[in-house]
TrEMBL record:
This is PLP-dependent aminotransferase family protein. InterPro entries: Aminotransferase_I/II_large, HTH_trans_reg/aminotransferase, PyrdxlP-dep_Trfase, PyrdxlP-dep_Trfase_major, PyrdxlP-dep_Trfase_small, Tscrpt_reg_HTH_GntR, WH-like_DNA-bd_sf, WH_DNA-bd_sf. Residues 8-76 form the HTH gntR-type domain. It holds the Pfam family GntR. One of its GO terms (molecular function) is DNA binding. In the C-terminal section; belongs to the class-I pyridoxal-phosphate-dependent aminotransferase family. Keywords: Aminotransferase, DNA-binding, Pyridoxal phosphate, Transcription, Transcription regulation, Transferase.
Length: 484
């Protein structure tokens, strides 16, 4: 308790108290500290004293101050470094990753699996009840119309809602520029086929989302990997050198939140990225599925906002923010509109009208925005918790990213460990993770894996993460006994 006559400054005593609560587990990484007013009245000290303690804790890197929200405890993150950049050879390659992707998907969907291998961050705060309520109402009102085909490029009121959201962000978007797709994956498939053909070179981040690599593989294109730092995204010098050296027909980047690292490019860098690519007249496909789930204190804009030539095609969806199973996504592009519509017609004719109706109502009701706000907070808290567990239970020399949004961390095990082996061991314990090699076209990231924290946090999740730590130790021991 606070001792007023002691030699210790009062604010220091408040700090000691918070640290003691952290040590005892009363306060855990990601938790919100009591408000200034509440703690000052509980401890019978002034508000400025508590404020001084919180500011000092922030200076020491132990808490985060979030505007209009409060102070949050960080994980200790003492010696835990970010994954290192591997060596890159600047050469386009054919992609071959299908077999392991199949194995990873199978693992995610086996019964009783702890799904740490799937990125569905909305499950951390799922809006199932709100969506079910709307679905019931819509079904009752629509009668047989609910079974009909929808318009090829999407349900106009939903397109209007999406366009309005872009306009509110300051991004010029007309309802006609939006095509509703079956998830972002179809939007990406259409965008890439509007801009490149078999044999063409497409620049991708490295590491990048394996769904993009799978598209490139299936379309017979070549991938050119551009190094992407787990702190601030794509390395622009490398990008320029690669564009100088090769005839790149399109780029596919997630500049806001990268999957798997969770990196977020700073605004100035994002702006520069668009300048570089548009100055070379190369189409830039922006995969922005996690953009709304960033942890930055100020709003961040999609690359579309910086486009001067209309060469940016934005692809996104409701999969990460509302319901992955609805399979509703969209693409935004004026320049490629006609070509894109042709592909959409040929590929899937239209997307589920019923699901578009439900999402239109969900967005209109305001619940969508309210849940995104809540979701960001929950994900941020989960992130601190998983980082803290990794720090405690994983071997020394493990590295981990510090995601700036989304629901996954990128972990690099110590030298000698193989993450595909780790993945298979984990599956035998009913835990799925995603092995690192899936995120590269050239077999990089053999020691890395993506682990999800985008699910309701509970004791079982904690035990699964601890188990992953145990399994990584067993990989290390095996390696040492082989060496011995
Ligand atoms: C970076 C990224 N892009 C696109 C997708 C595909 O999204 P959707 O489920 O909307 O097709 C995913 C899904 O995991 C993703 O992580």
């Amino acid at each position: 308790m606070i001792q007023k006559g002691s030699d210790h400054f009062l604010y220091q005593q408040v700090i000691d108290l918070i640290q003691a609560m952290q040590t005892s587990g009363t306060l855990r990484p990601g938790d919100k500290l009591p408000s200034l007013r509440k703690l000052s009245s509980q401890l019978n000290v002034s508000i400025p004293t508590v404020k001084q303690a919180y500011v000092e804790l922030e200076r020491l890197g132990k808490v985060d101050a979030r505007p209009k929200s409060g102070y949050y405890l960080r994980s200790a993150r003492m010696g835990i470094a970010s994954p290192k950049r591997p060596t890159f050879v600047r050469r386009p390659v054919e992609v071959r990753c299908q077999t392991l992707i199949e194995e990873a998907y199978e693992a995610v969907h086996s019964p009783n699996m702890m799904p740490l291998g799937v990125s569905h961050p909305v499950m951390a705060s799922p809006p199932d009840k709100a969506l079910a309520r709307i679905m019931r109402r819509v079904l009752a009102q629509a009668g047989p119309k609910a079974m009909a085909y929808g318009p090829m490029d999407g349900y106009a009121p939903l397109k209007r809602q999406i366009a309005q959201r872009y306009l509110e962000q300051g991004v010029e978007a007309r309802q006609e520029d939006i095509i509703i797709t079956n998830g972002a994956q179809e939007a990406l498939a259409i965008a890439i086929q509007c801009t490149a053909k078999a044999g063409d070179i497409v620049a991708v981040e490295s590491p990048t989302y394996f769904g993009i690599l799978e598209l490139i593989e299936n379309l017979g294109m070549m991938a050119l990997e551009i190094p992407t730092c787990s702190l601030d995204g794509i390395c622009l010098d490398d990008l320029q050198e690669s564009l100088d050296a090769h005839d790149v027909k399109a780029c596919i980047f997630s500049s806001l939140i990268n999957n798997p690292t969770g990196s977020c490019m700073p605004e100035r860098k994002r702006q520069r990225l668009v300048e570089i690519i548009e100055s070379r007249n190369i189409p830039l496909i922006e995969d922005d599925v996690y953009g709304e789930l960033h942890f930055c204190d100020e709003e961040v804009l999609p690359l579309q906002a910086y486009s001067k030539k209309g060469l940016v095609i934005t692809c996104s969806s409701f999969s990460k923010t509302a319901a992955p199973s609805y399979r509703i996504g969209w693409m935004l592009s004026s320049r490629y509109e006609q070509k894109a519509k042709g592909f959409k017609r040929a590929l899937s004719c239209s997307s589920s009208l019923l699901n578009q109706w439900v999402l239109t109502e969900y967005v209109r009701s305001g619940d969508f925005d309210r849940n995104i706000k809540r979701l960001r907070q929950v994900l941020r808290q989960n992130k601190e918790r998983i980082l803290s567990l990794i720090e405690q239970y994983f071997p020394e020399k493990t590295c981990v990213s510090n995601p700036q949004g989304g629901g996954v961390v990128w972990v690099e095990l110590p030298p000698g460990c193989d993450s595909t082996e780790w993945f298979r061991l984990a599956v035998s314990e009913s835990i799925s993770i995603t092995p690192g090699v899936l995120f590269s076209a050239t077999g990089k990231y053999k020691r890395c894996a993506r682990i999800s924290y985008g699910l309701p946090w509970c004791q079982t999740v904690e035990s699964a993460v601890k188990k992953l730590g145990e399994l990584s130790y067993s990989l290390l021991n095996k390696k040492m006994s082989k060496a011995g």
